[in-house]
């Protein structure tokens, strides 16, 4: 085969969908406001029920298909309609629910870098886990690769946790997330991250996973 006859590589992004994510389109999204700069990544943690890492409850929640009667905790969130752009499972599997060109419903009432309504101009990434718990090496690896691709595709200037865009209301991903490791892996300047997170010492954290 001549080089000119070789198939073209698949594009990394197609209409906001990432080539290396398993696509699970969900209905919980909308258009971004005209001219909104997609310059923020918001990191979250989620597991359903909290602390249980098997099954597909998160996927069913984002698809409005969760059986509220299946577990007592589900009754406490009955009727909730939410989504994130991405979900990284404990073993590093990457799922995508919403095109990054669209507005997912992950941040809620929020304010960061002088702007409110962070859903308008952010990309939400959920890590399978609990607020304050530790995350797996495979999750950091997947997260770093995804964020590197997002930095190439969008004008990302800020990366924060849900706890930073909705302080007092949300606490995820929490103290178990290793911000210094994440920053070093990506090689980004400290200005990308919330004040103080890179000086936090994670080694002594004893939170449950």
What structural class do you assign from the helix and strand content? alpha/beta
CATH T-level fold name of the domain at 18-25 and 37-52 and 83-189: Lysozyme-like
Could you list the spans in which at least 5 consecutive residues all have pLDDT below 50? 201-209
Number of helices: 5
Terminal CA distance:
51 Å
Helix content: 10-25%
Q: What is the name of the CATH superfamily of the domain at 18-25 and 37-52 and 83-189?
A: Peptidoglycan recognition protein-like
| Mean pLDDT across all amino acids | 93
Identify the CATH class of the domain at 18-25 and 37-52 and 83-189. Answer: Alpha Beta
Biggest sheet: strand arrangement? 3-7-6-11-5-12
Query: Could you state the order of secondary-structure elements as H and E?
Result: EEEEEHHEEEEEEHEHH
DSSP strand count: 12
Q: What's the architecture of the domain at 18-25 and 37-52 and 83-189, going by CATH? A: 3-Layer(aba) Sandwich
Q: Please give the largest β-sheet.
A: 6 strands, mixed
Strand content: 15-25%
Molecular structure report:
- This protein is an alpha/beta fold and 209 residues long.
- It has a domain at 18-25 and 37-52 and 83-189: Peptidoglycan recognition protein-like (Lysozyme-like), CATH 3.40.80.
- The protein is built from 5 helices and 12 strands.
- Strand 1 (13-14) and strand 2 (17-18) form a beta hairpin.
- The chain is globular and about 50 Å long.
């Amino acid at each position: 085969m001549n080089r000119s006859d070789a198939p073209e590589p698949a594009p990394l992004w197609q209409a906001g969908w990432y080539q290396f994510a398993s696509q699970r389109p969900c209905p919980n999204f909308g258009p971004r406001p005209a001219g909104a700069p997609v310059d923020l990544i918001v990191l979250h943690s989620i597991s359903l029920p909290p602390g249980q890492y098997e099954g597909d409850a998160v996927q069913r929640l984002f698809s409005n298909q969760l059986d509220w009667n299946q577990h007592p905790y589900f009754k406490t969130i009955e009727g909730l309609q939410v989504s994130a752009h991405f979900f990284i499972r404990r073993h590093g599997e990457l799922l995508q629910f919403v095109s990054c060109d669209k507005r997912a419903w992950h941040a809620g009432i929020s304010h960061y870098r002088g702007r409110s309504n962070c859903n308008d101009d952010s990309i939400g990434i959920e890590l399978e886990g609990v607020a304050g718990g530790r995350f797996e090496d495979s999750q950091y690896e997947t997260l770093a690769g995804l964020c590197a691709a997002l930095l190439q595709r969008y004008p990302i200037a800020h990366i924060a946790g849900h706890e930073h865009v909705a302080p007092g209301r949300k606490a995820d991903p929490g103290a178990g997330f290793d911000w210094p490791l994440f920053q070093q892996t990506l090689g980004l300047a400290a200005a990308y991250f919330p004040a103080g997170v890179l000086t936090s010492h994670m080694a002594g954290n004893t939170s449950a996973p």
